[in-house]
Design a protein that fits this description.
Layout: H1 2-9, H2 18-36, H3 42-57, E1 66-69, E2 72-75, H4 82-91
Antiparallel strand pairs: 1-2
Helix pairs in contact: 1-3, 2-3, 3-4
Length: 97
């Protein structure tokens, strides 16, 4: 899975060690399992990889909502993209108490 994340990161992959990628993936898998109340399957594994990429890209920019300098403006999404959220919601098992 680390190789797939490196492919998704492209040239930015050289900025991260395998340990950082592995930790981001571990955190993403935990987050997916916790949200969906189930073990990851193939679909959720792919979603966890995408979430790991988002986590890696957000390193050192946590909490940044927008930034502007020299005519360049940046802003970041809050949470995860709608397509990821849709898959997580579809795969979610509701706990009945």
């Amino acid at each position: 899975m680390i190789e797939e994340i490196k492919l998704l990161l492209g040239e930015a992959a050289s900025s991260f060690s395998d340990a950082q990628i592995s930790l981001a993936l571990k955190m993403a898998i935990f987050e997916v399992e916790d949200y969906c109340n189930r073990e990851v399957d193939t679909t959720l594994e792919l979603i966890a990889e995408r979430i790991a990429v988002i986590k890696l890209n957000r390193i050192n920019t946590e909490g940044l909502s927008s930034q502007s300098f020299s005519g360049v403006s940046e802003s970041y999404i809050d949470g995860y993209p709608a397509d990821i959220q849709a898959v997580l919601n579809r795969k979610r098992k509701i706990k009945v108490m």
